[in-house]
Amino acid sequence: MFIYRKSELSALIRRFHSKKAELLILYGRRRVGKSELIDQVISQVGGIRLLAREESRHLQLKRISSELAVFFKDDYLLHAPFPDWDAFFVYLMQHGDIRTVIAIDEFPYLVQEEPSLPSLLQYYWDTGLSKKNLYLILSGSSIGLVESQLMQYKSPLYGRRTGQILLRPFRFIDYYSYVNNLHKAIVLYGIFGGTPPYCLIEEPFIDLEEIVCQKLLMEDAFLFR
User: Fold this and answer.
1) What is the SS3 assignment for 106-168?
2) 52 and 140 part of one domain
3) I need a labelling partner for 55 at 20 to 30 A (CA). Which of 109, 111, 113, 124 fits?
């Protein structure tokens, strides 16, 4: 289910139609909807979301190689994965003439395994990627890590990003438009807040007590603990 985020979605799509390389940082706490927002952008303009995982550098590179090989229909890459992150950025350079979204979701996981990654990206951005037609999105759930690794003055990528979006939970006004009932919206928003998986009820018009029981009070409920 995807609702609202109109301003963020339109901003990301507007940047897709800019005539310059884009390096955009999308961050916010877990479960706030970053991946879903990226997927919505890709569904409209095309691209690929590479989801990083906490695993070894070798496995990270192998999996990303496989996903890019399928996306770009590259049989060679499928059988000869990237040996290092330099090869990954060179590959982006070679495929940077056609406008497409390359999103790396949970980028800090990659940095934890390869601390030099921001510095490598700085090098390739300065020596060629910034002159390509690349639209690169880096996202992360740890706000502190994203800001320190990608945005602060000491970060190698300081001054390279072309934009950033701190994705926040829904505001009440957005939630009210979804529920379309003032009393019910006040009660549900007061209980569940604006985090999408918590507050988006599949059937928001059913009885309030039933909603609370299903999501909070039953022992197997999503939010019981």
Assistant:
1) CHHHHHHHCCCHHHHHHHHHHHCHHHCCCEEEEEECCHHHHHHHHHCCCCCCCCCCCEEEECC
2) yes
3) 124
* Residue 79 shares a structural domain with residue 180: no
Of the candidates 112, 105, 57, 59, the one whose C-alpha atom is nearest the C-alpha of residue 85 is: 57
Characterize the bridge pairing of strands 22-27 and 163-166: parallel
Same domain for 112 and 211, yes or no, is no
52-68 burial string, b = 16+ CB within 10 Å, else e? beeeeeeebbebbbeeb
Short-list 47, 82, 46, CA closest to 63: 82
Q: Which domain holds residue 204?
A: 172-217
Extract the tokens encoding 210: 């039933």
How far is C-alpha 120 from the geometric centre of its chain's CA atoms?
A: 21
Residue 190: closest CA among 164, 207, 208, 217: 208
pLDDT tens digits along 20-42 = 999 999 999 888 889 999 999 99
Is 224 domain-assigned?
no
Beta pairing partners, 102: 48, 136
Is the torsion defined by CA of 10, 133, 46, 57 positive or negative? negative
